[in-house]
Design brief:
Largest sheet: 5 strands, mixed
Radius of gyration: 21 Å
CATH architecture of the largest domain: 2-Layer Sandwich
CATH class of the largest domain: Alpha Beta
Oligomer: single chain
CATH topology of the largest domain: 60s Ribosomal Protein L30, Chain: A
Structural class: alpha+beta
CATH superfamily of the largest domain: OmpA-like domain
Strand content: 15-25%
Number of strands: 7
Shape: globular
């Protein structure tokens, strides 16, 4: 019975708490509500194996934690979208993680790892938001297309990731929040058989996640 009640409450909460996406006009569930409520159900069902009181306590506690992290990432996502609109940087939300995809055509010249001068302003905008939201960890990952050998591409992708991380650090982001990884050509997101596909694969991605304990 407790499981049925908790599930019904979740359905009601998600149905009632919707909002309109300012960019698409689409009506959707607020992320902070969705993740917080989902956490409440999981923890509530665990508590339900003992008694209804522990179920309620677990649900309440997990809802507060989940909603807090979700809301924190909601606000950060909104500010990043506003700052990066029209820059060519993609902002992707996946649960409580935000991903920024930076194609090499706007960040680096071909076969180079020094950041283009015209991309400085965009990275400044990224840095401004990241500096404000301090309770996050940042993973900078470099990728290449399939042109060239594995060792060369691995080195190039690592250097590109390092360049972006170093620039952000110079803009006030503490180095302890930054991790860099070079993936070479191992994770294509498009076909390497076309010029357009290779251009998409040459990229730097920045993954933003809530720091443990935040």
């Amino acid at each position: 019975m407790t499981r049925i009640i908790i599930t019904a409450l979740l359905v009601f909460l998600i149905t009632a708490c919707t909002t309109t996406d300012p960019y698409t006009g689409e009506e959707k569930v607020r992320k902070s509500v969705k993740y917080g409520a989902a956490g409440a159900v999981v923890c509530g069902l665990i508590g339900a194996t003992r008694n209804s009181k522990s179920a309620r306590n677990a649900a309440a506690g997990c809802a507060a934690i989940g909603a807090g992290v979700g809301a924190y990432m909601d606000h950060q996502e909104k500010e990043l979208r506003e700052e990066l609109q029209g820059t060519g940087v993609q902002v992707v939300r996946n649960g409580d993680q935000i991903q920024l995809i930076m194609p090499s055509n706007i960040t680096f010249n071909t076969d180079e790892y020094l950041i283009k001068n015209e991309f400085y302003a965009t990275l400044d905008s990224v840095g401004k938001v990241l500096y404000k939201y301090k309770d996050t960890h940042l993973e900078v990952i470099g990728h290449t297309d399939s042109t060239g050998n594995d060792n060369y591409n691995m080195t190039l992708s690592q250097r590109r990731a390092n360049s972006v991380a170093a620039y952000l650090e110079n803009r006030g982001i503490p180095g302890v929040r930054l991790t860099t990884i070079g993936m070479g050509r191992s994770q294509p997101i498009a076909s390497n058989s076309t010029a357009d596909g290779r251009a998409q694969n040459r990229r730097v991605e920045l993954y933003i996640t809530a720091a443990p304990g935040s």
